Amino acid sequence: MSHADPTAKRPRRFLPAGPLKGRIRVPGDKSISHRSIMLGALAVGETRVTGLLEGEDVLATAAAMRAMGATVERTGEGAWSVHGVGVGALLQPAGPLDMGNSGTSTRLLMGLVASHPITTSFVGDASLSKRPMGRVIEPLSQMGASFEPSEGGRLPLTVHGACPAVPISYRLPVASAQVKSAILLAGLNTPGITTVIEPVPTRDHSERMLRGFGADLNVDIEANGTRVITIRGEAELKPQTIDVPGDPSSAAFFLVAALITPGSEVVIENVGLNPTRAGLVGVLRQMGGRIEELNAREVGGEPVADLLVKHSALKGIEVDPAVAPSMIDEFPALFVAAALADGVTVTSGLDELRVKESDRLAVMATALTAAGARIEEREDGLVITGTGGELLPGTPKGNGEAIATHLDHRIAMSMAIAGLASREGVEVDDTRPIATSFPVFEAMLERLSA
Ligand code: S3P
């Protein structure tokens, strides 16, 4: 009897297909899913979650919260029940916390552990083990926690939580919702008031959800747009019922896929459009993308709509770097749209893309070039000269070789949709990472092109 090797890469060639037609519902928002489990695990009583993203990243968070004493159970498709232990009552896990590929799990949980009497190690895959953790180690050390990281402030690392921790006032040196959230979560079990000063706004799910769970959290916006977020510690969280809206970062692949595939008309239902997340829709519209918002409403305290998207003649633009934080995970998909647009697209201010699941500027530049696009890689962005039509591997510098995805789900999905607009298709070296954030991506793509 032969068994497939579970460690083997899973390559796949994504071929051009007919127009994409139909309605889809993308899975729940990854950021909100992580936070639902973490905050549910800190509330006393039962939190019920529907629409939870059942991707590997969120499952890593669920396993970690179980290891620290919470009961986290699946009750149906996307339906989960979390019985929390209460702020301050997390338990010492028996072994290292395996974070897999998930930066969000790692950084937010480092914050939680930092103000509990817990010593634990965090481990992760090869991609996560290259990512910088110094950005959370620094403020959490100021709060009294201590760290034994690997070289360069990376995983594997051990955290010794401080109890009681010391409240700090911290100005974020990088626009990062993960760093902000790590400090706010540490602040939950810290006596007094913890303050985060955010000069450039980033996704605000932590603030919205902490408030929803009953934390005493306040946001002041100064005249220059700087946000001053305060949280009163030793909080008591009340369990909630949460309906997680669809993930705009997952919707992004189908938005771009429909825009670049002639004859397409797709409705993506229930997409979260929180203004700190929705930058891509505006940028694609500026490029000439036909995207309509239908049935605008609120789900789980977040603005949501169904998006109707039709194939469009896209044109290159200069993307305002100020929108970057509101679409930070969507640039790989945008680069694909730009590679097929008519004219030049210039992006800048994207240094943060170099420390995501892969170096997304370098990896997308290489990948799109191999698929037949014209790309100039700069330090903080890409300049893309679109073909105005389709990608032709073999010209001008493309060689049609398999795209190296470097354990990065968003590279794999972006290059999969590039395949739709490529004469000979695009071979992706490994589709397994897609399961971290969007396990049903390939099935959905097949259904729309059937
Ligand atoms: C996330 C924040 C972003 C984003 C990540 C999820 C979050 O990271 O890239 O996928 O849930 O807070 P940064 O805050 O580091 O930019």
Automatic annotation (TrEMBL):
PANTHER family hit by this protein: AROM/DEHYDROQUINATE SYNTHASE, PENTAFUNCTIONAL AROM POLYPEPTIDE
Pfam families: EPSP_synthase
Location of the Enolpyruvate transferase domain: 18-443
EC id: 2.5.1.19
Chain's role: Catalyzes the transfer of the enolpyruvyl moiety of phosphoenolpyruvate (PEP) to the 5-hydroxyl of shikimate-3-phosphate (S3P) to produce enolpyruvyl shikimate-3-phosphate and inorganic phosphate.
Gene: aroA
Sites where the protein binds 3-phosphoshikimate: K30, S31, R35, S176, Q178, D329, K356
Pathway in which this enzyme or protein is active: Metabolic intermediate biosynthesis; chorismate biosynthesis; chorismate from D-erythrose 4-phosphate and phosphoenolpyruvate: step 6/7
InterPro entries xref list: Enolpyruvate_Tfrase_dom, Enolpyruvate_Tfrase_sf, EPSP_synthase, EPSP_synthase_CS, RNA3'P_cycl/enolpyr_Trfase_a/b
Subunit field text: Monomer.
Segments of this protein annotated with the region Disordered: 1-20
Any one GO molecular function term: 3-phosphoshikimate 1-carboxyvinyltransferase activity
Organism this protein belongs to: Novosphingobium mangrovi
Active site: D329 (proton acceptor)
Keywords on record: Amino-acid biosynthesis, Aromatic amino acid biosynthesis, Cytoplasm, Transferase
Record's subcellular location: Cytoplasm
Record's protein name: 3-phosphoshikimate 1-carboxyvinyltransferase
Family that this chain belongs to: Belongs to the EPSP synthase family.
Catalytic activity as recorded in UniProt: 3-phosphoshikimate + phosphoenolpyruvate = 5-O-(1-carboxyvinyl)-3-phosphoshikimate + phosphate
Residues that coordinate or bind phosphoenolpyruvate: K30, G103, R131, Q178, R360, R410
Principal cellular location given in the protein's record: cytoplasm
